[in-house]
Amino acid sequence: MAKKAKKETPLMKQYNAIKAKYPDALLLFRVGDFYETFGSDAVKASDILDIVLTKRGAGSDSETELAGFPHHSLNSYLPKLVKAGCRVAICDQLEDPKQTKTIVKRGVTELVTPGVALNDDILHSKQNNFLASVHVTSKYLGISFLDVSTGEFFIAQGNAEYIDKLLQNFKPSEVLVSKPNRLKFAEVFGNDFHVFYMEDWVFQDDYANETLLKHFNTKSLKGYGIDDLYEGIVASGAILHYLGETQHHKLEHITSIQRLVKGDYVWMDRFTIKNLELYHSSNQNAVTLIDVIDKTISPMGGRLLKRWLALPLVDLKAIEQRHDVVAFLNEDQNLRTKFQNQLKQIGDIERLISKVATAKINPREVVQLKNALEAIVPVKALASQSKNASLKALGEQMDGCEELRELIKQTLNEEAPVNIQKGHTISSDFSAELKELRELSTSSKEYLDDMLERESQRTGITSLKIASNNVFGYYIEVRHTHKDKVPEDWIRKQTLVSAERYITEELKEYEAKILGAEERILLIEQQLFSELVNWMVQFIKPVQKNASLIAQLDCLCGFSKLASDHHYVRPSITEDYILDIKNGRHPVIEKQLPLGEPYIANDVYLDREQQQIIMITGPNMSGKSAILRQTALIVLLAQMGSFIPAEAATIGLVDKIFTRVGASDNISMGESTFMVEMNETASILNNISERSLVLLDEIGRGTSTYDGISIAWAISEYLHEHPSKAKTLFATHYHELNEMTETFDRIKNFNVSVKELDDNVLFLRKLVEGGSEHSFGIHVAKMAGMPQQVIHRAKKILKQLEKSHSSEELTDKVKTLDNDMQLSFFNLDDPLLEQIREEIVTIDIDTLTPVEALMKLNEIKRMLLKKKQA
């Protein structure tokens, strides 16, 4: 039997028509004072928001699920939906319900998605919220990133590995991909991103090019230096198309597009970014590098610092300019303090000016923008007078925006509200008409007092009262005792127990005038504020430039504060190939040490002639991995422009950092630990350059010992013989690799020293020359609380194994040990032990209850005690 079609009410008909246009979005449908969701959207919303799920038209043909919340709670509920990965279409009432006799006209006013959000409750102040787009072709992949809340727009193209690295660095909240590339994207980049699949025609060369030219209002893209990035242009065009689709048409704040050039920054693959825990960690509550080095004050500075960390420089001059500023601020800490005090007052001008472009700024935020620009004036003056060339240039490029500040000051009250409907937004001095209307509104008390006095004298009623309520407006109240004195021209409106209420013609006219004035005041305020915001659009570029300069200054002040707080020093960056770190420290680990415990600093020296590869042996937990990681982090910090945690360092420019640290299973994609390890190592060996820094930790441990040693040996040999002679630190527990120094002259042995005390071991965490004699794995097991009998047995096996070298001998030895253990118990010529053996062998363990087991054990114990007593 065919299912009966649901009967549609006019409201649901309207809802269904709008929902059909946004099938993959959760539709928030404004009904009166509520945003409602229906059907499957209601089920999803009630689950995410933890709100009540009810039914509309319960029991009728039009029954459907319903969940909603008050419209004024939108800013509380919207972020929860977006963070849960929903695309949310906000459908508002487009006309006043009082002005229409039919159903209210409604339409989607904004589509909020994880990557397209302007709501402060969704955004993080020190994080960008990037929307990415990836265009896949057989030759290259194009990529683009846009933060609609700041207007920052980036473009790049390259192979899958480069695009993967950028995705890891920029961590977009949402990625756009064409529908035919759905499987290919997942195969190459995994399933960690919120992906939205778009129609294929959006990713067409001509359409994308036309979209960008139209947006920037230019005849060519040559001015942005991106005209040869064909795949990148397609990705960028798709982003702008998507913004149009999500009802974001006011995009004047997206004023330019910046090319990301592969060779301008230190190359780090996705594994390195992950392994070094620069800004994310797989461990909960772990401290990352950004947590330690971020001393920025402004949101713009916080966002820029993340980008500097993701893209360290390889241009010696640019690095030294940053170091010069940090050194200058270290010498003049008073100036740094003055800068930072001003930075505290600036706030997020980058996002505020974007709200101007999108017409989503409120009156209070405009005042905040004016105050922020005023706080920049002394920063500009201080920087412009600086003896440091870079600071001076920063100051001179800042724009005082006097005209903008002046008009905001003249137009708005300093205490302007968030919501313009609250009134008192526009200054009375700015508009003569507004001033007159406000005076009329505020002088009503005096006027009514005069009227009350006149009517009291005229009627002889001394207890007259003038008041107002929402039903009747203004009225005159007369007690029943004076009812006979009421004039004929008064009109009775209401009878109370002890009084009568009247209105007069004069009171009616005055009330209309007052109410008219208040409506007119609101209209004028809205109009003047809207005109102000439209006029402010012309200042988007200078304010964005200020935001960029303030962000740079904030990062450099932060580096200076970091250096003086934690005793960081200026590294010497050179064009040669030496890496010489004296007493380097791990920036994160040293911050987590218990109070009073000193960090054991270490020297690392690498070059391409004498000491290209350092083979580091030493027990687990001794600090091998920490030395590897700290070397990479020191190089990164130096090349992003920061001082470093060391006594001194000379760093020959590094262009690529590769790390293979620790085992990371990729079971979800069907790859074992060893397979992942080999993939990552292969990627390193195929991409090394003469300026690369390679850090390998425990390569080959995912397979058998002899396989592992062979692979680790072959990798070390390859790195030694490769023409690039890449500088390498190789931490391993395979002591056999120490023998490589006899054959390969640029491989040197070092070990992380330990001190043996009786049967214990003390980790000194100091890197010293020479190979390590043996491992201390059993000591580590003991420290971890392994049962004594396991430790004892392991020591016994180790002694036997150390006497042997061939795998067959090893197996035989272990077998002998096994036999020894059995002999010691059962093969003795003792009738009692034979009896006990028989007892144990004949027990049916599967049917034995715990109580029976205890009783059997007790029985054996008694047998042994009897023998002892005999």
Which descriptors apply to this entry?
single chain, 17% strand, alpha/beta, 29 helices, Nucleotidyltransferase, domain 5, globular, 6-stranded mixed beta sheet, MutS, DNA mismatch repair protein, Chain A, domain 3, 870 residues, 5 domains, 7-stranded mixed beta sheet, MutS, DNA mismatch repair protein, domain I
Itemize the secondary structure elements and their pairings:
Blueprint: H1 10-21, E1 26-31, E2 34-38, H2 39-49, E3 54-56, E4 64-70, H3 74-83, E5 88-93, E6 106-112, E7 131-136, E8 141-147, E9 152-158, H4 160-170, E10 174-178, H5 182-189, E11 195-198, H6 205-216, H7 230-245, E12 258-259, E13 267-268, H8 270-275, H9 289-293, H10 299-310, H11 316-331, H12 333-343, H13 349-357, H14 363-384, H15 389-397, H16 402-411, H17 432-442, H18 444-459, E14 465-469, E15 473-479, E16 491-495, E17 499-503, H19 505-536, H20 540-566, E18 572-574, E19 579-584, H21 589-592, E20 602-606, E21 613-617, H22 624-640, E22 648-652, E23 656-660, H23 673-687, E24 692-697, H24 705-721, E25 727-731, E26 747-757, E27 760-769, H25 777-783, H26 788-802, H27 807-826, H28 831-842, H29 850-869
Parallel strand pairs: 1-5, 7-10, 9-12, 10-11, 13-23, 18-22, 21-25, 21-26, 23-24, 24-25
Antiparallel strand pairs: 1-2, 2-4, 3-4, 5-6, 7-8, 8-9, 14-15, 15-17, 16-17, 19-20, 19-22, 26-27
Helix pairs in contact: 6-7, 10-20, 11-20, 12-14, 12-20, 13-14, 13-20, 14-15, 14-16, 15-20, 16-19, 17-19, 25-26, 26-27
